[in-house]
Amino acid sequence: MCNNQSEFQNVPMFKINKIILLIYWVSLSCFSLACLAEDVQINNELAVLIDVSGSMKQNDPHNLRVAALKLLINVLPANVRAGIWLFDEKTTPLVPMNPVDAQWKQQALQTVEKVHSAGLFTDIEQVITVASDQWTTQTPKVPQISRNVLLLTDGMVDISKDAQQNTLSRQRILSELLPRLQQAKVHLQTIALSKHADAQLLKKLALATDGWNKTVVSDQQLERVFWTMFQESVPQTTVPLSQDNKFIIDNSIKEFSALIFKNPKSKTELLTPTQQLLSETTQLNTVQWVSEKNYDLMTINEPEIGDWQIKAGSDPDNRVMIVTDLKFELDALPKYQMTTTPIKFRAHFTDKGELLTREDFLNLIEVTIRISDGEHEYPDLNMVADAKHKGYFDAVLDKPLPKGSYLLTIVADGKTFTREINLRLEMLDTPITLTTALDAEKKQVKLILTPDLSQIKADSVSIEAQLTQIGQESKTVNIPKQGDQWELAVDAPSQEAPLVVNFVAKAKTNADEEIVPEIKPFMVEAQLFEAEKVEPPEHPVEEAEKTPEVQPEAEVPAENEESHGLTLSQSVIVIVAVNILLLIASYFIYRYFKNKELTKETELLDKLS
Question: CB 3.0–4.6 Å: which of 386, 423, 495, 566 could bond 392 by disulfide?
């Protein structure tokens, strides 16, 4: 100890000051980096599963799966945890499931060329099981983030030359694996890259998990289909892009990425508000330009405020995605809706995750819902401010839409800024309609299935319900007939895990044709009964296919509770001095930047208002 004190006394004061300052700035840098890391909140998880069986040689002869994967990798934002698996007779991890950052993207782009077409079989059961294991084996609870699987295959369940083994595997997917995915709130987006794929299975998996299913007739469509599936899996904040490819960047936007599908007759350029023309040859630190055969992806950091224009052909799939604290958010909607069910929309603005309720800001905003089926434009629907809940905008689409697929574009116009949300809905028209009646006191929900007797024969209808809950043995029950309806009372789950009800129905049409009507699964959750107790609905819950959406509260980044212990062998005195210096400096620096940040936020909202 004496030697150490003696050594310390011989150290010149200016060197001690250097040591203190060095430790101070290193600690401050670590503190800043930690704060930045906390700002990136993971709110989406995506598992991408790519078929590499031998039949891909015919269905994807140019290996365009690589180009499609590159597009997906390039557009993934930083708030996503993602992984990529290849599968044939075995499952091979290509990129581990990790938060998406520059290192993840670099690794993914380097390994994506390993996609091949040399496998022997197509083990769909195994790859879904492996990729979703992290979700289905966790302690059952309602996930706070969106979980998605993007499955691309060109075949059927094929694990053996023995047809019976293949049949058993397919049955396990539907009876065992699917309910686990439903309880874990995993959405399956399925892509069939062949007319020989098991379209019935892929459609069932998508419908039962509120995901999308698409059959690709040509490998040339893969990039666009991947892009569509990505938008459904990982919704992005965007700004509207006009028909002449113009868009507005306001002063709350820190970065934007424009995805432009190429026009063979013209090259892609970007015109800034100050009339500077940017292209893939532009050498600027703020500009990143990815140019592939079929698309350009331009990312601009700290962009100029004002009117931008993309010099390229117009394309309905073009998007301008933005990074901003000022977000326009829409409450989750089931992708599949019944044609007889009113659709309720609810939206709000947040700034750094906090609900915006300033009247001077909200009064300037107009929210419009545009509806299109690809051929026809339907009348716009206006969202209005909720009188009871400040900050929210509501609308109800109570005029039935015909059966089919629809693109909904929700545009919020704040005069000095705009935001846009794009979503797709599939309107279903089934001869058997599901409605529910909730009894909160008994903690019971009655499932009521009503056949359309103008289409099917009542005496031909049989309906089974498969009840599945994590940790419990699944059971199948016949739903009894009550008059012209089939009714089943289901108790609230005794555990935190939800109870999934899947239906299997058979019937005959009036023309004596056997059919298997599709009935959407129903999820019975404890929150359903808790919500009913807190705020009873104005009307009985008897709307067709009504599945309550429980919105998780915004996650608040936890404060960093770890103390950065610093050691200096020369003297305990220096340690104490450094800690005191860091505490005092950190306090005043925190107060300075906090006040500055609050001032900037107020000024920004005032400008936007």
Answer: 386
**C-alpha span between 208 and 430 (Å, rounded):** 15
d(CA 71, CA 69): 5
The answer to whether the CB of 480 falls within 8 A of the CB of 487 is yes
3-class DSSP assignment, residue 597: helix
How far apart, in whole angstroms, are the C-alpha atoms of residue 259 and residue 223?
Answer: 12
Closest CA to 498 of 44, 181, 204: 181
Q: What local confidence, expressed as pLDDT, does residue 485 receive? A: 94
- CA distances for 601 relative to 220, 352, 557, 586, angstroms: 46, 10, 19, 22
Rounded to 10 deg, the angle between the 65-75 and 222-233 helix axes is 30
Give the C-alpha distances (Å, rounded to integers) separating 391 from 196, 331, 358, 377: 50, 13, 8, 29
Enter the tokens of residue 353: 């995750």
Place of tokens 């996609």: 115
- Write down the pTM of the prediction: 0.79
Nearest CA-CA partner of 334 in 179, 201, 145, 185: 185
Kind plus residue range of the DSSP H or E element containing 378 = strand 377-385
Residue 494 has a pLDDT of: 75
How far is residue 248's CA from residue 259's CA, in Å, rounded to a whole number?
15
The SS3 assignment for 570 reads coil
Q: What burial letters (b/e) apply to 575-602, b meaning 16+ CB within 10 Å? A: beebbeebeeeeeeeeeeeeeeeeeebe
CA distances from 63 to 51, 133, 219, 222, 445 (A): 11, 28, 8, 10, 50
The token duo for 299 is 């990312």
| Amino acid occupying residue 249 | I
DSSP 8-state assignment for residue 409: E
What pLDDT shows up at residue 558? Answer: 34
Query: Considering the chain, what percentage of its residues have pLDDT values greater than 90?
Result: 62
pLDDT category of residue 528 using cuts at 50, 70 and 90: confident
Q: Within a 10 A sphere around the Cβ of 244, how many other Cβ atoms?
A: 8
Instruction: Write down the pLDDT at residue 5.
Output: 47
Q: 265-295 burial by CB neighbour count: b if 16+ within 10 A, else e?
A: eeebbbbbeeeeebeeeeeeeebebbeeeeb
Q: Is the pLDDT of residue 20 over 60?
A: no
What digits encode the pLDDT tens for the residues 94-135?
999 999 999 999 999 999 999 999 999 999 999 999 999 989
What is each CA distance from 91 to 52, 300, 605, in whole angstroms?
A: 10, 37, 50
Cα 609 to Cα 247, 256, 354, 360, 414: the distances in Å are 19, 22, 17, 6, 8
Asked if 208 and 521 count as a contact pair (C-beta separation under 8 A), the reply is yes
Quickly count helices (H) and strands (E) in the chain: 13, 32
CA-to-CA dists, residue 572 to 13, 70, 296, angstroms: 16, 54, 58
Sorted by sequence, the CB contacts under 8 Å of residue 72 that are 6+ apart come out as 48, 150, 226, 227, 230
